[in-house]
Specification:
alpha/beta, Rossmann fold, six-stranded parallel sheet, two-stranded parallel ribbon, 19 helices, globular
Length: 536
């Protein structure tokens, strides 16, 4: 089964960022085609995802060992590599054919392009102009589209449809490659498309109904009816969950509703009423919002590179919604399901915890434990590599004398330009992930206090991080019910496990892939011992 993910606008890009982190952590399964659709080509949120995809594909190309064996007189603990060999976990999802397919929709345009040009107003007859004037104000027609649709869904619905159709056959435009892969996979069976976007802005609210309509409009020669029947749609509709400073009166008059977050609930109500009367063609809809809307930007940026918002836990919920949709055993073409979850328990709001994160019904309750343990282990891996190992262990090349290196690398070497570039990409990806977590702690406030020990992510110096690595999870949670076993000696324990690890052979030609594999195996075993997880 083929899976496709589309993020629309700045909010869709931010949700895609969370989805990529779940893929890196080994939570998402199967290969993926991902596309960000945003008419604001320089949007800071979309550009951040483009960079993240570059780092991800560089890392995922580094082959990790598969089905490795450890000798009978092995140094590694049996729980790391049990009798049944353990396959690699991290960075295993193939995204966009290992980076060969564009991840961002390429819509060439200038900042001077106006909506009046999109509808070809000047060429209309006087009667048609009068008809258009019934639906669009002068400021709508004069609106410049260089930074998106700025809360004007009536503008975005027309402009986005026109632009998508115009770029449908453009080489390296992103959309063409996405549709080619999708129509190819539909020949072989069911394919699933998951769309994420806001229903309070311009681009997301316009794009959510437009994308299914775009494929529905393909001719029989492009997408035969028997193949069209294999298409399944899921959607995370993002309701209001953040705020930003209000614009001045002059800015609001010029830029529209999307630049005033206090009006997002009103825009959401209007969009949902429209969807209720004209339902988009989605089999599964996840409506996501937040009761407390934290500020995610210090200034009001309607678009462009400065619109790089802080992450929010609602975006993690959207990524988990995609995980649920792609994990469904089967979906019926005619079914219509609205998914609901909250953090309430007998009238008490428990907040965003490992027990309340929405994981769907597939495989629960084991699914919840899988999510928590993989995210905790991945976070520990990232913390150790980014904050401790990259400089002390890699840049200074102190790994040469370690038992881990002597016992496993053989003729492989971590030195050289190619290896350096991959390690730099790994470090950059880890840095982005830790920044993402810190952002969630800041925008989520008290609501997310029980996920991680957030103070540990504020540490920067190596000695502090070595002391804190065993205390990344908030105490009193199912995944950390008591004081960690290695509360002050976590880093030493990880290195002890790592240096006791020995494989029969590298089982890969990639030294960076081997390093990722060995370090994660040691980190996972450390987490199991540290937090008292059961053996698998």
């Amino acid at each position: 089964m083929a899976n496709y993910y589309i993020g629309i606008g700045g909010t869709g890009a931010r949700c895609a960022e969370a989805f990529i982190y779940l893929a890196a952590a080994g939570i998402i399964k199967g290969d993926m085609q991902l596309l960000i659709i945003d008419p604001d080509a320089n949007n800071g949120n979309s550009s951040a995802v483009e960079n993240l995809l570059t780092y991800y594909t560089t890392i995922s190309r580094e082959g990790q060992p598969r089905n490795p064996n450890s000798p009978r007189t092995f140094k590694i603990l049996s729980s790391i590599l049990p009798a049944k060999p353990r396959d690699p976990v991290l960075f295993q999802v193939g995204v966009n054919n290992d980076g060969a397919v564009p991840g961002l929709w390429n819509m060439p345009q200038t900042n001077e392009r106006q909506f009046i040009d999109v509808v070809e107003y000047a060429a209309c007859s006087q009667k048609l102009k009068s008809f258009v004037d019934l639906f669009y104000q002068t400021e709508d027609l004069d609106m410049r589209l260089g930074v998106g649709y700025q809360g004007r869904t009536n503008v975005g619905a027309v402009a986005l449809k026109e632009d998508l159709e115009e770029t449908r056959d453009r080489e390296r435009g992103g959309l063409r490659e996405f549709l080619v892969a999708l129509t190819r996979d539909l020949q072989n069976g069911e394919a699933r498309v998951f769309v994420t976007g806001s229903v309070f802005g311009g681009t997301g609210a316009a794009g959510i109904p437009t994308l299914p309509a775009l494929l529905k409009g393909l001719g029989e020669q492009d997408l035969p009816a028997n193949q069209r029947a294999n298409l399944r749609w899921g959607c995370a509709m993002m309701g209001p969950y953040f705020i930003f400073p209000r614009p001045s009166a002059a800015e609001a008059a010029h830029l529209g509703l999307g630049t005033d977050s206090t009006l997002h609930p009103i825009a959401t109500q209007a969009a949902l009423m429209h969807y209720a009367h004209t339902p988009p063609a989605y089999q599964h809809v996840y409506l996501i919002g937040a009761p407390f809307r934290g500020q995610t930007n210090d200034a009001n940026h309607p678009g462009g590179s400065d619109q790089r918002n802080q992450p929010h836990y609602a975006e993690l919920a959207a990524a988990l919604a995609a995980w649920d949709f792609f994990s469904l055993q089967s979906t019926d073409r005619e079914e219509k399901k609205l998914h609901f979850a909250d953090t309430q328990d007998n009238g008490i709001d428990r907040g965003v915890t490992w027990e309340t994160l929405p994981v769907g019904v597939v495989g629960a309750p084991g699914r919840r434990g899988e999510l928590a343990q993989k995210l905790i282990a991945f976070t520990t891996f990232v913390y150790v590599y980014r904050n401790i190992l990259h400089n002390e262990f890699i840049t200074n090349q102190s790994y040469r004398d370690s038992d881990m290196y002597k016992d496993n690398f053989g003729t492989l070497s971590l030195e050289g330009y190619a290896q350096e570039q991959s390690l730099v990409a790994l470090n950059a990806f880890c840095d982005n992930y830790l920044g993402w977590l810190r952002g969630i702690s800041q925008t989520g406030g008290e609501a997310v206090r029980s996920l991680f020990n957030w103070q540990a992510f504020e540490a920067r110096d190596v000695s502090s991080c070595e002391l804190l690595v065993g205390n990344l999870v908030a105490l009193g949670t199912p995944e950390a019910p008591r004081l960690p076993n290695y509360s002050r000696t976590g880093y030493q324990k990880i290195m002890e496990i790592l240096n006791r690890t020995k494989l029969d052979s590298p089982q890969t030609q990639s030294p960076v892939g081997l390093l990722i594999y060995l370090l994660y195996a040691a980190v996972y075993e450390f987490c199991r011992q540290n937090y008292g997880w059961p053996k698998k």
